[in-house]
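[Meeting: bench + compute handoff]

Bench side (C.D.) handed over the final construct sequence. Compute side (W.E.) agreed to return the predicted structure before the next meeting so the bench team could plan truncations. Sequence as handed over:
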Amino acid sequence: MGASEEVIGTTSSYFKDCSRCITAMTPVRQFYVDNLRGDLAATLAAAKSATGAVYPPGSVIQLIPGEAMVKREKGFNVATRDWEFFELDVSKDGTQIRKRGFADVVNRFGGNCFACHIAARPEWDLVCESEHGCKPIPVTRAMIGALQRTDPRCNPAAPSPQDAEALRQLQILLKPKE
């Protein structure tokens, strides 16, 4: 089995692991990181860099439970700088990969992952944050925090009144326009 097949298999089993709730990953500012190859220190160094960095292969980044990006080995996909994007279905029973790919994965907000991330300035390695050059996403920090704290894989308690309100506002935002 080559390195590419190894990462693909590891990625699939990583997301199907019921215990792999978003808050079990390592928090960095408002997102969470991990590394499929065990090189969490290098992933954290890239994530915490004040000037930008290239993430090491195996890096996993999640802002919300239903989406992730995974850094693949160098040369895997030049257009996406070796990032693979995932849309995930999460439940108390675990995670199903709904869609995975490169330039064609669309999130539940209707945005194309790659189209947003490609706007990040080169030093940020396609990782979007407020000062990285990407367009703002249509959700508030309160909504993001509520989604993270209510990840069903984490056996969450009932949402706080603030989280319940943020999730209610998110549902309004996601409601199809008539």
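W.E. noted at the follow-up: Strands lie at 26-28, 31-35, 59-62, 67-71, 83-91, 94-101. C.D. will use this when planning the next construct.
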